[in-house]
Design brief:
The structure holds 3 protein chains of 3 kinds. Helix content of chain A is 39%, strand content 23%. Chain A contains 10 helices and 10 strands. Chain B is an all-alpha fold. In chain B, 71% of the residues lie in helices and 0% in strands. In chain B, α2 crosses α8. Chain C has a single domain, classed as ABC transporter involved in vitamin B12 uptake, BtuC, CATH 1.10.3470. Helix content of chain C is 75%, strand content 3%. Chain C has 11 helices and 2 strands, in the order ααααββααααααα. In chain C, strands 1-2 form a two-stranded antiparallel ribbon. Chain C is globular, with a radius of gyration of 19 Å. The chains are: A alpha/beta, B mainly alpha, C mainly alpha. Chains in contact: A-B, B-C. At the B-C interface, α4, α9 and α11 of B face α3, α4, α9 and α11 of C.
Chain lengths: 252, 272, 291
């Protein structure tokens, strides 16, 4: 589904990614973990086109998408949530999700004015319907009209997931979705990710919450200081001495 | 019922509404522009050329002026893409000044003396009709996909782009359409003021239009309407303070900014 | 001839610098553009004029008076037009609205108090001229250039050597950090306004002396130019503003001398646009302009 080859990213003097290889299988849930500063969010930012890579390639289902701009990447089938929630606070939950569908719809300024009965109105109704569906999926059906800014943090994270799913992605990137959640909410998230996988969407997530990672992932990749130090099934990775050393400290 | 002075005030109110509504579009895409006077100038001059030299009817002239301004808007819109916030404000200011200076030196349109003897073609119904039309357009945008995209871009460009919004297309289009409106406003203005010169479209004008939009509040398309009413009618209503009109007006502005910093109509959340 | 023009340009430019520095100081500390700064400059000229007329004093006294008067004015503007909005966390354009209001008030007050016509400084300075090689300088020009340079030097020393000056730089870098370090940012902002406005006031007197044309409307043109210079030199960068002002003065004078004078402004703004397109952070600015 997704291949990342020798990906490197440098910010001035700071090497955030130093040659990362990653392969995500279709239909799987793949987690990326690592200590703080390992480069996980930078990896996401480069894959989704928010930052250009310094070196290396990214390809989606065989197509080279290296350096593509973010909106193009979304149209190609990758959607994401953000570590620091980036909702549109002034818009309602429903509207947020509807914006998520932007990549799959077409009407522009002209259509908004003229509103031809079949094209735009049909599209608009369809967008609204799908948005409501997704809100139900993440458990926010009752909060559809609430402003993004008025939701609780956990609700906001769930809204971001719904918004990302609105573009019908083939690959969903979740950046620390469990941030700020209590154990009950984490379990809900676990179930949600499984549900998403059942619909055929591949999931790549960055997460610190180890229990969740172990429970939900098929494959785990460990990053440290911009490099991959281990990759494999959760059980194998958690026992890998290099991984343990990376988390416990480098002077070991 | 209304004497001709009162009617002319209303016409200027309408023109200010047109100008403010047109600036509202790029500003609601997060592009603070202080150069709208430049687009107005282009529209004014081109419209006058069309009606006076080519003998076209006013509406055709307005179309010509608007189109010329829109083209300029598209051209300015591209460099404006990469620049944000205060820098964009200054870039657009510079653009406005360059337009003014261009017309100052452009002999065929009279240079500093401008063009006089323009026919009085602007009527109150026409101006209000144009303003109403623009308001209608903004309303239609608001509830549609493009309106949501604009608000998304205004709030958080990075997130908007991640949702698949083509920033270039949206921002340049907003800029160009805004310029189109300003051009039409300029044309209407020219055929009401009957005399135009580059000085009328300088920084003061851009600041005035910007002030109107910001004063009214950015949350809703009624903002520019209210703002235009305040800025156009208030100085008239302050006639009784005769000599100190601008002082009172200025003080009211300061008060507004302090008491209602997000605009007069802020604090209203429009529904989906 | 070229040298003479250069000297003239530097003299003109030094007054521009004083105004641009004011913009830069305020932008550095507040992140805002003070849209009434041109009017403060104008008030400086008018205050200086009144002092000369009423107290029959010389230009130096007028300068000092203008410096003090505009400093007070600047502090008032901060207290009335900026601080209350900051306290309420208003959006970026709210202060612009209030400064436009302040500008309007100042203009009308000036028109009422001093009449709408252009006035000149009565000449109390002997129009002595000196020759330095191929260059001729009049005493007025010398006063202007000298005063500007002294003021800029004083500012530099103040900003780098005194506690308050360094507090200002700290606040400009990061208000939060400065506060955490115990700096009273409110006081720093007051001082910044006082200094910025004083410089503008001094520039007002100097320009009034050199062009002999003081009117309530002289602030408009100057205000826009000062803004352009601050942009050229890098927003918030006072040294950039200094150099930018001198540069602009030189460009203006040279372009009048060697190109058609009507295109002078066009040239200036053309340069500005080019810089904005290719180096939007200004000649000396650092940091990114996007994202």
């Amino acid at each position: 589904m997704l291949r990342v080859d020798r990906l490197a990213k440098r910010f001035g003097g700071y090497q955030a990614l130093a040659g990362v290889d990653l392969a995500v299988e279709p239909g799987s849930v793949h987690a990326v973990i690592g200590p703080n500063g390992a480069g996980k969010t930078t990896l996401f930012n480069v894959i989704t086109g928010i930052l250009p890579p310094t070196e290396g390639d990214v390809s989606l289902e065989g197509r080279d998408i290296t350096g593509w701009r973010a909106d193009r990447v979304t149209r190609a089938g990758i959607a994401r949530t953000f570590q620091q929630v980036r909702l549109f606070r002034g818009m309602s939950a429903l509207e947020n999700v509807m914006v998520g569908r932007h990549a799959r719809t077409r009407s522009g300024f002209g259509a908004a004015l003229i509103r031809p009965p079949f094209h735009e109105r049909g599209e608009e109704a369809e967008t609204r319907r799908r948005a409501r569906e997704l809100l139900e999926l993440v458990g926010l059906g009752a909060r559809a009209q609430t402003s993004g800014g008025d939701l609780t943090l956990v609700e906001q994270r769930r809204l971001e997931v719904a918004r990302a799913l609105a573009s019908d992605p083939r690959l969903l990137l979740l950046d620390e979705p469990a941030g700020g959640m209590n154990p009950v909410e984490v379990e809900d998230l676990n179930q949600l990710i499984r549900k998403i996988r059942e619909t055929g969407v591949t999931v790549l997530l960055v997460e610190h919450h180890m229990r969740l990672v172990m429970r939900v992932s098929d494959v785990v990749t460990v990053l440290d200081a911009g490099r991959v130090i281990a990759t494999g099934s959760p059980d194998i990775v958690r026992r890998d001495p290099r991984v343990i050393a990376a988390y416990l400290g480098r002077d070991a | 019922m209304l004497d001709s002075y009162g009617e002319s005030v209303l016409v200027f109110l309408g023109i200010n509404m047109v100008l403010a509504l047109s600036l509202y579009l790029p500003i609601s895409a997060g592009q603070l522009s202080l150069g709208h006077g430049g687009f107005m100038a282009i529209g004014a001059y081109v419209t006058v050329i069309c009606t006076t030299w080519l003998g076209w009817p006013l509406v055709a002239g307005l179309a010509g002026g608007g189109l010329a301004a829109a083209l300029a808007g598209a051209v300015v819109g591209f460099p404006a893409l990469r620049i944000k916030g205060i820098y964009l404000i200054i870039l657009t200011m510079g653009f406005g000044e360059i337009v003014r200076i261009f017309f100052l030196n452009f002999e065929p349109t009279g240079g500093a003396s401008g063009i006089g003897g323009i026919r009085h073609l602007t009527t109150l119904p026409l101006v209000m009709g144009v303003a109403a039309l623009m308001l209608l357009c903004l309303m239609r945008f608001r509830g549609a996909r493009i309106g949501r995209a604009l608000r998304a871009v205004q709030e958080d460009e990075v997130a908007a782009e991640a949702m698949g919004v083509n920033l270039t297309r949206v921002k340049v289009a907003a800029f160009a359409l805004g310029a189109l409106g300003a051009g039409i406003g300029g044309g209407l203005y020219a055929h009401q003021a009957l005399f135009i010169d580059p000085g009328q479209f300088g920084f003061f004008r851009s600041a005035e239009i910007f002030l109107i939009v910001v004063l009214g509040g950015l949350g809703t398309y009624w903002g520019p309407v209210v703002g235009a009413a305040v800025v156009t009618l208030l100085p008239e209503m302050l006639r009784f303070v005769q000599d100190w009109r601008m002082t009172v007006f200025g003080s009211l502005l300061v008060l507004c900014a302090v008491l209602r910093p997000a605009g007069l109509l802020s604090g209203r959340r429009p529904a989906a | 001839m070229l040298l003479q023009q250069l000297v003239n340009g530097l003299m003109l430019g030094s007054t521009y610098s004083l105004i641009a520095i004011g913009y830069a100081l305020i932008f550095g500390v507040l992140g805002l553009v003070h849209l009434a700064h041109g009017e403060v400059f104008m008030m400086g000229a008018l205050i200086g004029l009144q002092i000369v007329l009423w107290m029959k004093a010389g230009p130096v006294v007028a300068l000092v008076g203008a410096l003090l008067g505009t400093a007070v004015l600047g502090v008032l503007i901060e207290l009335i037009a900026f601080r209350p909005i900051r306290a309420r966390n208003g959006p970026i354009f709210a202060p612009m609205v209030s400064t436009i209001g302040v500008g309007l008030i100042l203009q009308e007050v000036a028109t009422k108090a001093f009449g709408g016509e252009q006035v000149g400084f009565p000449h109390r300075l002997e129009p002595v001229t000196w020759r330095l090689g191929p260059v001729t300088i009049s005493s007025v020009q010398l006063l202007i250039l000298g005063t500007s340079l002294v003021l800029m030097l004083a500012l530099h020393l103040w900003v780098t050597r005194t506690r308050m000056g360094m507090a200002m730089r700290a606040s400009a870098e990061s208000t939060l950090t400065a506060r955490l370090l115990g700096i009273s940012t409110d006081r720093v902002i007051l001082v910044t306004f006082a200094v910025a406005s004083a410089l503008a006031g001094a520039a007002g007197v100097l320009v009034g002396l050199s062009f002999n044309a003081i009117s309530p409307f002289m602030g408009i043109d100057m205000g826009v130019k000062g803004l352009a210079i601050m942009l050229l030199g890098g927003l918030g960068n006072i040294y950039g503003a200094m150099v930018g002002g001198l540069l602009l003065g030189a460009i203006e004078v040279l372009s009048v001398a060697y190109l058609a004078s009507s295109y002078r402004d066009a040239f200036v703004f053309g340069v500005m646009i080019l810089i904005l397109l290719f180096r939007p952070q200004g000649l000396f600015g650092v940091g990114r302009v996007d994202r």
